[in-house]
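2024-03-11 09:14:02 DEBUG pipeline.ingest accepted 1 chain
2024-03-11 09:14:02 DEBUG pipeline.ingest length=198
2024-03-11 09:14:03 DEBUG pipeline.predict start
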Amino acid sequence: MLKIGLTGGIGSGKTAASEHFAHLGAEVIDTDLLSRELVEPGQPALAEIAAAFGRQMVNDDGRLERARLRALVFGDPLARQRLEAILHPRIRAAMLARADRSTAPYVVFVIPLLFETGQQSLVDRVLLIDVPESLQRARVAARDGIDDAQTERILQAQTDRATRLRGADDVICNDGSLAQLRAAVEKLHQKYTHQVRN
């Protein structure tokens, strides 16, 4: 099966692109969604996070305090590494298991930290959803309502744009409309399905 690694910085439009790939018939496996499933109440990863970072990371309903954990890990590189050590092996295993069960013509792994975690070897092609940093900042501020300082910390924790561009096999520049993004996705969908058939 052809495996595509879809990546891009925060606010680049990965979700909109991946949703359109799914609409066209691709198997889309989003590592952010897998990550959320892995920290549901009762999951071993949630207990490990509480043990590593303190009970205050879990609220009274037994759910992860996402905002508190995000503020901690984006302000402390060592804390981020500890969290990644808990989550990344589990995410990778779940992602590959779902791909193995798929009957779609190709699979799209949505991996925001593809380059940061060195997962290029898991995919046949890397697809970058690219956007200028100024537009990233504006989108993140509008969507997430977080302050400039936290946005900056998130951007600093991600691979820089030039490195992502160098490492990509395919690039969609998402600085236009949603219709333009979908048209670019459709063009790549045709390319990927053609590759699978041949």
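2024-03-11 09:14:41 DEBUG pipeline.report The chain has nine helices and five strands.
2024-03-11 09:14:41 DEBUG pipeline.predict end
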